Amino acid sequence: MIIMKNWYCIYTKAGKEDAVSDALRGRLGLEVFNPKIRRKRYLKGRYVAAVEELFPCYIFSRFELEEHYHTIKYTRGVRRIVGDSVGSPYAVDEAIIQAIRSRMVEGFVVLQPRKFARGEKVVIQEGPLKGLEGIFLEELKPKERVLILLSTIRYQAKVEIAPDLVGSP
Questions:
Q1: What is the CATH number of domain 6-109?
Q2: pLDDT digits (tens, 9 = 90+) for 24-55
Q3: Nearest-angstrom CA–CA distance, 138 and 145
Q4: Is the pTM of this model over 0.85?
């Protein structure tokens, strides 16, 4: 008899992704994929490097459903195995896992920042200027900054800001 191991997505409690991953690896010896990203966050007046889950509250694990379903479902920190309304888990295609892994560099998923066109309207999404709208002017040389024309109450100012803090309105 051939045992079929598929990838499944597991929904965890907030902040418990690492604990669940460790439990599934250590106690059950399962293959677990908990992709993370590095990004800069604005914290206490400056930018700091932060490591975050690519999919907060979700991890992936490859296992044989009949053998491990009950144990995983009742592992501390697990809310449920993602599936339909009846509770039947959805298998995750191996190609999806490989696509995410192909974007990994030094253990972290590298996301390509969205490119904005000159004149495009943008909104600052983090930091002290959060919520303010502006017009994208240009990407500056050290690819970590963009120049936007900030429009607010009859005053316009040029602001240099990290590109991952800017999004479409």
A1: 3.30.70.940
A2: 999 999 999 999 988 777 778 777 888 889 89
A3: 9
A4: no
